[in-house]
Amino acid sequence: MAKKKVGFYWCASCGGCEEAVVDLAEDLLAALEQIEIVFWPVAMDFKREDVEKMADGEIFATFINGAVRLSEQEEIVHLLRRKSQVIVAFGACSHMGGIPGLANGVQREQILDYYYHSGPTVETNGSVEPDPGITKKEHGFDLPEFYRHVRALDQVIDVDYYIPGCAPPPAIVKGALAQLLAEEPPPPGTVLASSHALCHECELNETKPAEGIRIKEFKRPHQVEKIDPNTCLLVQGLVCLGPVTRGGCGALCVKGRMPCTGCFGPLDGVQDFGAAALSFVASIIDSNDPHEIERILDEGIPDPLGTFYLYSLPKSLLFQKLLGRNGKKVAESRPRKEKVEA
Amino acid sequence: MKSFEPKIIGLFCNWCTYLAADLAGVSRMQYAPNLRIVRVMCSGRIHPEHVLWAFENGADGVLIGGCHPGDCHYIEGNFKNLRRYLLLKRLLKQFGIDERRLRLEWISASEADKLRRVVDEFTETLRELGPFAQEAPLFQAAESPSPIQKSTLGMKEED
């Protein structure tokens, strides 16, 4: 049987997802019995021209990590979409926008100003900024455009599957590969991880009190003198997003005594991860007095947007409204399509 | 030019605020027609996603109505809503949205007059704030590039 062609590409990402592929270790060698890597800029010497020469749909599956912010990234993911039968969003950034997606909370002007003018380590005569109008063809390069927004992969091209995680753990990547190569692949749009919440697989789940969790004071990890490894982190006042986050990672962070920050994203049927997280966190506050609630929030949740949308700001409903109004493709997999009538 | 008429989504609990709206109706009270009511069994059932979804789909303001504290048909569903509401307001502020676009009111079944006053007031507030889409700075930044961007950077709009 001919080996199936597979590609990898990275957009706005840290490189951790590339590591996640290498972390497969011996399993990667086993996978190479069935697949052939035809494009992987970070590790292998294939160029864009090589992909352009391929027939449409020649690649079986391309795994793309990272969010999309540069025009170059957009061009290449469109190219890869044409050449691939299956596109897999690999990792939290291409799944939901990830950490780079938080940049949507500030304006492009602020970012450029900080990095090219006002940042404390910047020495400049005040005029230098990257100019996408410049083309140095004689040196063989031009500069891509720096778009106004960071987008998740499925806000740019159609995506068939998602592998969640920041970065996806080896077991998840291995399981996803097996599912993709199986005779009956999962239905398109599937997130290739557990369909249960993280708590379901967390060892500390049993230590939740039967009467429910009620919190008078939220704490950040550094504010807890000693985190008890044998008690649910929520009970200890840490904002652990396990109850609303998709499982599959084996509660790695919790085992390392760090609360879950939600990199696996929402469970099936949830449109807005941040809203789900906010709802759950608000529900466990142990007070009915508005002033006391305000105080608990002031002290414990100083940055709701950064806490609840750490990995998913571009996929938030409010941000999708913006993309929709600009005539951009909004994730089409959204189950509810009704519009409020005028 | 036709003046701006805000759209308000009202998420009203079955036992108090919805009945107040009913009473206002049978009493032939007049109030701003900008309100569209969605009846829910309890204000504690209202998820932040409902509110955000309303904004995403064209609402200019969301009015949540529940029973007075202590009067909840389900003992303390309205307190659950209160906690979510207070946290959601903070989130909206971070998104650059005026927090006055989300309003929570305790209105009992007999307070048809309060309902009328609240809806009229809220409509007036939203009229002053203008359309949701134009108001949020985070969103505005996306719509109107500064002159520096266009002239000196040569950056095209992405659409």
Report on the structure:
The complex is a heterodimer of chains A (342) and B (159). Chain A has twelve helices and nine strands. Chain A has a five-stranded parallel sheet with strand order 2-1-3-5-9, with helices on both faces. Chain A has a two-stranded antiparallel sheet with strand order 4-8. Chain A has three domains: 4-100 and 150-181, 3-Layer(aba) Sandwich (Rossmann fold), CATH 3.40.50; 106-147, no CATH class; 198-323, no CATH class. In chain A, 29% of the residues lie in helices and 12% in strands. Chain A starts with a strand and ends in a 17-residue tail after the last helix. By secondary structure, chain A is α/β, with parallel strands linked by helices. Chain A has helices spanning 16-22, 26-31, 48-53, 71-83, 92-96, 108-118, 170-181, 252-255, 273-283, 290-300, 304-308, 317-325, and strands spanning 4-10, 35-39, 59-65, 68-70, 84-90, 135-136, 141-142, 146-151, 161-163. Chain B is α/β, with parallel strands linked by helices and 159 residues long. Chain B has a single domain (8-131), classed as Rossmann fold, CATH 3.40.50. Chain B contains seven helices and four strands; from the N terminus they run E-H-E-H-E-H-E-H-H-H-H. In chain B, strands 2-1-3-4 form a four-stranded parallel sheet, sandwiched between helices. In chain B, strand 3, helix 3 and strand 4 (102-106) form a beta-alpha-beta unit. Chain B starts with 7 loop residues before the first strand and ends in a 6-residue tail after the last helix. The model of chain B is unreliable at 139-159 (pLDDT under 50). Classes of the chains: A alpha/beta (342), B alpha/beta (159). Chains A and B meet through helix 6, strand 8, helix 9, helix 10 and helix 11 of A and helix 2, helix 3, helix 6 and helix 7 of B.
Q: Say which CATH homologous superfamily of the largest domain in chain A is assigned.
A: NADH:ubiquinone oxidoreductase-like, 20kDa subunit
Order of helices and strands of chain B: EHEHEHEHHHH
* CATH architecture heading of chain B: 3-Layer(aba) Sandwich
**What's the average pLDDT of chain A?**
89
Number of structural units classed as domains of chain B: 1
- Secondary structure category of chain A: alpha/beta
In CATH, the topology of the largest domain in chain A is named Rossmann fold
Beta-strand content of chain B: 5-15%
Summarize the main sheet of chain A. Answer: 5 strands, parallel
If strands are numbered along the chain, what order do they take across the biggest sheet of chain B? 2-1-3-4
**Form type of chain B:** globular
Q: What is the chains' assembly state? A: heterodimer
At CATH's second level, what is the architecture of the largest domain in chain A?
3-Layer(aba) Sandwich
Please give the number of β-strands of chain B: 4
The CATH topology of chain B: Rossmann fold
Q: Looking across the biggest beta sheet of chain A, what order are the strands in? A: 2-1-3-5-9
Helix content of chain A: 25-40%
Q: Largest sheet of chain B, if any?
A: 4 strands, parallel
Q: Distance between the terminal alpha carbons of chain A, to the nearest Å?
A: 57 Å
